[in-house]
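INFO worker-7 received task bundle
INFO bundle size: 2
INFO processing item 0
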Amino acid sequence: MSMKRTNVYADPEDLAIIKEAAARRGISEAEIIRQGIHLAAMANRVWDEPLFSRTFEGSGRTPSREDVRNAVADGVQREAVPGTAP
């Protein structure tokens, strides 16, 4: 992968933390900065498709703790009974 050089301004405190982390991890400061740039790029990326494209039938309300427990218990019970369809 080819790299492109760029200049950025950074707080001295942040640079000191990066310097310490690089020494501790045995990697270059530039590598830590590249990792940070990649994380920032991915956090701000706009995807072509939504992350969740499936829809589910339901009441449209957030299930209660009891609803979740009952659904899990029903699922476990269905798996425990041979020949029971999900």
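INFO item 0 finished
INFO processing item 1
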Amino acid sequence: MENKDQQNQIQIELTDEVAQGIYSNLAIISHSTSEFVIDFVRIVPGVPKAKVKSRIILTPEHAKRLLLALKDNVSKYESQNETIKLDNKGGFFPPVGGEA
């Protein structure tokens, strides 16, 4: 007989293609009353056009879970490494926010 923890486990599959990942140096986040949309973009210096490489659509509840998970992981990273510094000098910082 399986215990309750074994019954509630989900097997997650990671294909070779997805495991390669997609590099992004910009995330644009928008929302409506029912969902959050995160577009991951790669900006190349000197190129005036950038393409969305991936789009993730989340419920508001999952967006908040993602926020908390990122906050937790950044804290763990900084406790093991160094504080991540955000420097506005010479960098590109597009407007953040908006509604879909």
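INFO item 1 finished
INFO post-check item 1: The chain is about 30% helix and 20% strand.
INFO post-check item 1: Strands lie at 26-31, 36-42, 51-58.
INFO worker-7 idle
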